Amino acid sequence: MARSPNAQQILDCALTLADTSGWERLHLFDVARELDVGLDAIARHYRQKDDLVEAWFDRADQAMLVRGKAADLPALTPEKRLEELLMAWLGALARHRSVTGQMLLYKLEPGHVHLQVQGLLRVSRTVQWWREAAQRETLHLCRIVEESLLTGAYLRTFVHWLRHPLDDDADLRALLRRQLRCGPLTVLLRK
């Protein structure tokens, strides 16, 4: 390993270590030791452990945006575009699914109010990118309602994905489709 690992190498190392130790037991000094560097090399890229969580979800957002550039996407229905994009997002997290759930539990601890606020902002940001990648053009009140309904669909699908790791993609897609066909959202997606 190079003496100065980059942000991706640090994140990958942390995730690999957390796969065996769990997120709660992972310490930044463990990551530094594994990479054979000092903590200063970690601090150049991550000010605190939770920054690794944000980087992990940024990676999933990027996977969704890459899928959003695919040539086949514009020809799909809005519902199918949203489905494809969220499946790409979840696919990016799949390798470390258990750790991903542990990260969220860490953020939800009572003493971590600052992390909970960041978590809410993260959900909002991901839903915004999800809408953008799906090329949603709703405006004003319709946009507000659509964002709210999509946030609910995103959260229900994500929580189900975390809690049911043995479900296959077809089952998850079916659940997501049901979420996207929910009452008012169906009307908005036809616009």
Kindly summarize this structure in a few lines.
By secondary structure, the protein is mainly alpha-helical. The chain is built from 10 helices and no strands.
3D structure, described in words:
This protein is mainly alpha-helical and 191 residues long. Helices cover 73% and strands 0% of the residues. The protein has 10 helices and no strands. α4 (49-68) runs antiparallel to α5, α4 (49-68) packs parallel to α7 and α8 crosses α10. The protein is elongated. The N and C termini lie far apart (52 Å).
Shape type? elongated
Number of strands: 0
First-to-last CA distance: 52 Å
Spans of at least 5 consecutive residues with low confidence: none
β content, as a range?
A: under 5%
Instruction: Count the DSSP helices.
Output: 10
Main sheet?
A: none
| Oligomeric state of this protein | single chain
**Strand-pairing-aware structural class:** mainly alpha
